[in-house]
Amino acid sequence: MPPTSGAGSVVVTTPSDREIRMTRDFDAPARLVFAAWTTPELLLCWFGARGWRLVECEVDLRVGGAWRFVSRGPGGAEMTQHGVYREIVAGRRLVQTESYGDAPAGAETLVTTEFVEDQGRTTVVTTVTAPSREARDAVLRTPMERGVGEGHDRLARVLTEIRAYGVDGRRRAADPTDASGTTELRRERRNG
């Protein structure tokens, strides 16, 4: 199907009557993008729409592990998202359930995110599978597309900063053998 739209540089399509697919390219290797997608300290830097920020971010990155995000927005409004990881292939694929707030049983979506690297750039393809067409259409009527686009724009800036400065904020020497910043990410995980 052709794109429904493209807020910023996120392209949103509806490949089936229950799916929403969002695609975005990032100028960073897949390992680094995956780390930014799954590391609480990095998620706190970029996740969410403009005016919203994560105030709680819990990630138990293992199959069967839970994740939970609480975002705070304008006027102190809060939104909670949570789910369970079903599949993890580091640097390549992440599959998780997702529910909002106290959503009723059966209202959760399945979110599959693929990280496809080509010559140091990564295309992230996120497919949200809703329980029904009606549920998918309700999501499409929300400002989800704008929010995802704004969050992804922040992520692009964070990735640029990590590549230039590393996770610890210190200017990195130009080292073509470690352009991804993964050494700093590994060091940060060991120390944190």
From TrEMBL:
Its transmembrane ranges are none
Protein's UniProt name: Activator of Hsp90 ATPase homologue 1/2-like C-terminal domain-containing protein
Q: Which residues form the Activator of Hsp90 ATPase homologue 1/2-like C-terminal domain?
A: 27-159
Return the Gene3D superfamilies for the record.
3.30.530.20
Q: Which family does it belong to?
A: Belongs to the AHA1 family.
**InterPro entries to which the protein is assigned, alphabetical:** ASHA1/2-like_C, START-like_dom_sf
Where on the tree of life does the source sit, at the highest rank?
A: Bacteria
